[in-house]
Amino acid sequence: MNAGKLLLSAVLAASCSLAFAADPVTQRQDVFKDYKKTFGPMGDMVKGKTAYNQAEFAKLAAHLEEISKQPWQYFTPGTDKGKTEAKAEIWSKPAEWKKQITAHQAATAELAKVAATGDMAAIKPAFGKVGQSCKSCHDSFRKAD
Ligand code: HEC
């Protein structure tokens, strides 16, 4: 690659990441879409709708724990407007919001831990606790569809 081409691709890469960073609403919604893709199949296994596969379930649980660290950074001030279901309370009740995140992350960490053991008797309640943490936060901070 010659210098001109190199420079051009560097500029393109920079402007792409800038365009991304400019839309925190899409970024957090993308993480929540990943939540759905991860949590859904786990629920199917817990409920016996699909066969329980210990390795697959543990992988999903580890991924869920990982992405439970991500959406919150994109709830930047002023992003309660437009195509979002985020309630203004996220910004007016920051302590309550933080509490929901902390409880949720503790639940996903616990689920990842028990998922690694493959013990369904422990997985079921841990899974339920994560689901409860999703619902609890949505009830307070996400507009109903
Ligand atoms: C601490 C609060 C909180 C927790 C915990 C939480 N969510 Fe959400 N979720 C939100 C908010 C706020 C939105 C709306 C985001 C927006 O539209 O800007 C949302 C949106 C979503 C969406 C819609 C994404 C889209 O397509 O726009 C899905 C799906 C979702 N959450 C799934 C989950 C699942 C599954 C869990 C648990 C494993 C979970 N969420 C946990 C706050 C939370």
From TrEMBL:
Heme c binds at C134, C137, H138. Residues 1-21 form the signal peptide. The keyword Heme applies. GO terms for cellular component: periplasmic space. Pfam families: Cytochrom_C_2. GO terms for biological process: electron transport chain. The keyword Iron applies. GO terms for molecular function: electron transfer activity; heme binding; iron ion binding. It comes from the Bacteria. InterPro entries: Cyt_c/b562, Cyt_c_II, Cyt_c_prime, Cyt_c_prime_subgr. This is Cytochrome c. It comes from Craterilacuibacter sinensis.
